[in-house]
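Hey there, shall we discuss this one?
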Amino acid sequence: MQAVLNFPDLSPELFSISLFGMEFALRWYALAYIAGILIAWRLAVVALRRPVLWPTGGPPMKPEQLEDLVTWIILGVILGGRLGFVLFYQPAYYLSHPLEILKVWQGGMAFHGGLLGVILASYLFARRHKIPALSLGDLVAYTVPPGLLLGRLANFVNAELWGRPSELPWAVIFPGFAAQDCPGVVAGMCARHPSQLYEAALEGVLLGVLLLWLVYRRGAFQKPGLIMGLFLAGYGASRFIVEFFRQPDAQFVSPGNPLGLAWHLGGYGLTMGQILSLPMIAIGLWFALRARRAA
């Protein structure tokens, strides 16, 4: 069935103003970050104020400590996301142009790198303040899905990170030359999977609802490491699945490798997103099983 959905007429900017001859704009993606952090902070406050959710001894930290934790996490997201993109996706280019690494405003962030940054920042914060690291990891993990949901919706509004060509009835015709560059398809009629919405549904809604249910209905925080492990495994599995529908990163696509596989053998292979997701799944399952056995 031929897809007929045109991309909605949406602007990536919520509004813009001019001050002192300079243009300032608030973009939906920036708003998604801000809203995601505020929602995460509120979810953390609610959980920390309910001692019954936690193991004997109560919550791992006080609500008053959240402000410092959020600062550490923001730094982890920015530094980890940028370095992850540099190392995972374009190491040769940035080794030749090291000053370009600092130009984060030009784009180029990797979720898996940002996740590693958050893990390291949270671990260092836990050590500095003598907080149980696994319980802190659980607290952080359960607050992340709303931000993922908003971020993927912002990707859709920005008409970026779209999917592979498709003729499904819900496929979308995204604007721009790159989105319309589909071999064998008439110009201006190349429809693609709205993979941003697939990720929003899996990483944001499904995973978020599961973690909330486990925390508030199944007492999951009382098994330190369980929520963190399930988040890692759940995100990794979601991303692995969506990679089958998501347009591969341009630097991996070539005439001999149209699927953009970062590793392939014969007729099979994996994208970079899938390669980076496999360790997440394995480590997440290990933490989850370890938590259940220790309970």
